[in-house]
Amino acid sequence: MTRAFVFPGQGAQVIGMGRALAEAYPAARAVFDEVDAALGEKLSALIWEGAQEELTLTRNAQPALMATSIAALRALEAEGIEVGSAAFVAGHSLGEYSALCAAGALNLADAARLLRLRGQAMQEAVPVGVGAMAALLGLDFEAATAVAAEAAMGEVCQAANDNDPAQVVVSGHKDAVERAVEIAKSKGAKRAILLPVSAPFHCELMAPAAAAMAEALSHVHIDEPKVPLVANVTAHDVTDPATIRSLLVEQVTGSVRWRESVVFMVSKGVTEFWEIGAGKALCGMIRRIAKESECRAVGTPEDVAAAKG
Question: Does the active-site annotation cover 173?
Fold first, then answer.
């Protein structure tokens, strides 16, 4: 089987994630120690023993989820399963940083610091209450894009995440997103619901965060990844470090083209996806996109043992 390693985004965070991996594998424990050192604080204590609402803060969730993913990868490596066994890596939004770290393009400390900055910059780009995001269920990307355009009325409203054939997330000004919810229902959406997020990610309102990431990324070394990255904003593979740098900036305001990314990997022969890190959200999406593909979640020592078996 040809496999791809995929890495989850925000929303998968849960208190206790990665702890069993750290207890079972010294290499996984070392990941959390290195992230703690890079950030100058005990993020691991928050991940394992803190409050869910604090972990869910964007500035914490982003580096925490990356650390958990890389810890799971290190556990796989300890059992002889290397990233080079995958044909591609890909990640959903912040998961793109996890994918690049997994593939050796970013070092772990840089990935942690970039995600801390990214989380803060995304949170600070828009005052609380000004923006919103909503999931439109039962509409495809083309229909959701049309809904967003109709709802904008001079404000920002964009299709932010093309997650799977029947789930698109829109993002922008709160009033415009609320209009999109009502329009979507009138256009036949099965459900249209506002999401409990703290900022309107992946839309033009994130321009200040994109500028902050452009500045930060200009000072970070990016190597050619050992495995091609399928990028969020193009849904195609990329290995050139300069292109990766520019795509990471573009990603902050651009759509996460996850459905197309999975379709691309399948078109290149991928038959098996491994979701590395917390949760199983990507596997759910992948099963709706590519019904013939297999998907396994790898986030616990038991998952690692099953993958090795």
Answer: no
**Of 44, 69, 92, 202, which is the active-site residue?**
202
Instruction: Give the C-alpha separation, 77 to 102, whole Å.
Output: 11
Q: Which residues pair with 136 in a beta bridge?
A: 168, 192
Residue 92 bears catalytic tag: no
All residues at 6 or more sequence positions from 4 whose CB lies less than 8 Å from its CB, including other chains: 86, 87, 88, 89, 90, 230, 265, 270, 272, 273, 274
Reading the block at residue 54, the tokens are: 């604090």
Q: Are 170 and 134 in contact (CB under 8 A)?
A: yes
Give tens-digit pLDDT for 110-168: 999 999 999 999 999 999 899 999 999 999 999 999 999 999 999 999 999 999 999 99
- Rg of the chain's alpha carbons, rounded to an integer? 18
Q: What angle do CA 107, 112, 113 make, to 5 degrees?
A: 100
- CA angle 140-141-142, nearest 5°? 95
Catalytic residue among 44, 69, 92, 93: 93
- The rounded distance, in Å, linking the Cα atoms of 105 and 195 is 32
The string of pLDDT tens digits covering residues 187-209 is: 999 999 999 888 999 999 999 99
Mean pLDDT, range 88-101, rounded to an integer: 98
Report whether pLDDT(309) > 90.
no
Q: Strands 272-276 and 191-194, how do they pair?
A: unpaired
